[in-house]
UniProtKB/TrEMBL annotation:
Transmembrane regions: 6-28, 40-59, 71-89
Protein name: Multicomponent K+:H+ antiporter subunit G
InterPro entries (alphabetical): PhaG_MnhG_YufB
Single GO MF descriptor: sodium:proton antiporter activity
Keywords carried by this UniProt record: Membrane, Transmembrane, Transmembrane helix
Lineage, broadest ranks: Bacteria, Pseudomonadati, Pseudomonadota, Gammaproteobacteria, Pseudomonadales
Entry superkingdom: Bacteria
Organism: Pseudomonas panipatensis
Length: 109
């Protein structure tokens, strides 16, 4: 494997890990449900996407060709994460979950 491919794989893994870490920190630190919902759906999706793309690049350069598993994981991840976040937000609005004072907007009115 060439040095350029190894550097690109390492970069994707590091960026993906950084985004996943930021998503986990955001889930822990943000004040209410609505803002907490934003961190794992955006940052963690990008984090897992970066790690899977790094895996796809690594194993496709080993000579096995393009791996269908990583492509399908990425496709399903980017389709299901926004849909599940939307459904969770709609359920929270129906339940009228309390918001932090810094959260702007009235989602249920």
């Amino acid at each position: 494997m060439s040095g350029l491919i190894e550097a690109l794989v390492a970069f994707l893994l590091l960026v993906g890990s950084l985004f996943a870490l930021l998503g986990a920190i955001g889930l822990y630190r943000l004040p209410d449900f609505y803002t907490r919902l934003h961190a794992p759906t955006k940052a963690s999706t990008l984090g897992v996407g970066g790690v899977v793309l790094g895996s796809l690049l690594y194993f496709s350069t080993l000579g096995g060709g393009l791996s269908l598993h990583e492509v399908l994981i990425t496709l399903f991840l980017f389709i299901t994460a926004p849909v599940s976040a939307h459904l969770l937000a709609k359920a929270a609005m129906q339940q009228r979950l309390p918001r932090a004072s810094r959260t702007r907007g009235e989602p249920w009115e």
